[in-house]
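Worked problem 6 (solution included).
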Amino acid sequence: MKNGRIEKLNMLAQTKFLSLYEAEYKNKAGNKKRWTIASRKSYEVLKAQYFDGKEEKMDAVIIAAFHKEQKKIVVIRQFRVPLNDYVYELPAGLIDGDEKIDVAATRELKEETGLELTNINHEKTRNNVYASAGMTDESAAIVFCTCKGEISKDYMEEDEDIETFLMSQEEVKELLKTDSKIDMRAFIMLQGFAEIGEKMF
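Solution. The predicted structure is:
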């Protein structure tokens, strides 16, 4: 891996969706240090990325969706266990196996909101973005797209507690004035939508 400094990787704990590793690395002064990493990847996959130069696999998609007919952005409010509360987010989800980003985004948007993805803006879509690189290697693609249809909860999984909103530029501006909990990626996207509206997409 280019610029890689990790010399050894040790498993600390493993669960179905998340594992903890201890990485032994050298800092810029050449001194040996340790760092705890949370990852969605198996030991074998992460080791291959760190030491064998295997291409990094993205973990998730984050969906910035604009409803063309309603002229509104799609926003969800989801219960998140680590916060023990609801938080405003963009629709998102894990990429299954070798699933393509387009397929994952289409599936997750339908599952969480009932809406149908109609077109992806590949020029604006960005792979490999990171939300908390000091703690985790989790990476995502931010997918800019348009959608259509009616909101529905019929496709959600049992553990998904989600309410979907179609928000106008003015409604987003009002949301941003509140003290509601907002995911940082959603906050940045909503700030952009509040400023330039449909031009984002």
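Discussion: The chain has two domains: 6-51, 60-200.
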